[in-house]
Design brief:
Layout: H1 3-18, H2 22-45, H3 52-78, H4 84-122
Helix pairs in contact: 1-2, 1-4, 2-3, 2-4, 3-4
């Protein structure tokens, strides 16, 4: 789980670089979101190893991501006229969720690093 943060950081940096051309930035949100959901599922599987703070942030991330996916699904199935503003808002929320996930993976990395330092001090 230590490498999850580095992978996530690389994907977000790539998305920021592609974001300078808005079309590719929005397009890359799809693989970024899919990879972050896979990482979140991986963290949920190992939830017993995580701290209470990380678990609560992960819960907030999972619920928010699910709501965003449901809203996007209904937006595209109903094709509401004039929903460009809502689409832009959903994309901004998606980017904010990506940074929340980056923070969660940072906390996991720090937790693992601190545990390894404690173990090496006692040896």
């Amino acid at each position: 789980m230590k490498n999850i943060h580095n992978i996530n950081k690389g994907l977000i940096i790539t998305n920021i670089i592609l974001g300078f051309t808005i079309y590719f930035g929005l397009l890359f949100l799809i693989p970024l979101g899919i990879s972050q959901i896979i990482m979140a599922i991986r963290m949920v599987i190992d939830e017993k190893k995580l701290t209470k703070e990380i678990t609560s942030l992960l819960t907030i991330y999972c619920i928010s991501s699910t709501l965003v996916l449901i809203i996007l699904f209904f937006m595209y199935t109903t094709l509401i006229p004039g929903s460009e503003g809502l689409f832009l808002l959903i994309m901004i929320i998606s980017v904010l969720l990506a940074f929340l996930h980056l923070y969660i993976t940072y906390l996991v990395k720090e937790m693992i690093t601190n545990k390894n330092q404690l173990i090496s001090k006692h040896l």
